[in-house]
Amino acid sequence: MVKAIYPGTFDPITNGHIDLVRRSAKLFEHVVVAIATSSRKKPLFTLEQRVGMAKASLIDVPNVTVEGFTGLLADYAKQKDAKVLIRGVRAVADFEYEYQLASVNRTLYSELESVLLTPSHENAHISSTIVRDVAAHHGDVSSFVPPLVAQALEQKFKANK
């Protein structure tokens, strides 16, 4: 069984993330969406909230699980006996960063391969950062995220209106 991990902070999960998970679920027998604590990035949502939103958004994909994790991704992949990392690449700058990460992860865990997927055309412009910025300015994010995520963002920024 080929198990793949799709890691990230998912702060919040977007339609672009969901598209990559769904497509990955067709390529691999099992996909773990691994949500990093990522205190360095100072996430808008707690780890529990991000895991909850991802689980709810992917509930209909049977071969996908969602988990939070801390520590090195290579160590987490070893613990899960995963051999594949899934990463999304939107632009050349993403590729350069992902190439570096893939090299480091392969050094730390030689059996780990990175698979880079490009977004579908309709999701190529979406990032969690942009979604947070639009939501912070009370813009409509409903075409970028699932409804439950749009509601969570609205609640998060409601006090700043």
Topology at a glance:
Elements: E1 3-8, H1 15-27, E2 30-36, H2 47-57, E3 64-69, H3 73-80, E4 84-88, H4 92-108, E5 113-117, H5 128-136, H6 147-158
Parallel strand pairs: 1-2, 1-4, 2-3, 4-5
Q: In what range is the share of β-strand residues? A: 15-25%
Number of strands: 5
Would you give the CATH topology?
Rossmann fold
Element order: H for helix, E for strand? EHEHEHEHEHH
Catalytic activity: (R)-4'-phosphopantetheine + ATP + H(+) = 3'-dephospho-CoA + diphosphate
InterPro entries: Cyt_trans-like (IPR004821), PPAT (IPR001980), Rossmann-like_a/b/a_fold (IPR014729)
Pathway: Cofactor biosynthesis; coenzyme A biosynthesis; CoA from (R)-pantothenate: step 4/5
Protein name: Phosphopantetheine adenylyltransferase
Describe the protein in words:
It is globular, with a radius of gyration of 15 Å. The relative contact order is 0.20. The mean pLDDT is 94. It contains six helices and five strands; from the N terminus they run βαβαβαβαβαα. It is an alpha/beta fold. The protein has a single domain, classed as Rossmann fold, CATH 3.40.50. Strands 3-2-1-4-5 form a five-stranded parallel sheet, sandwiched between helices.
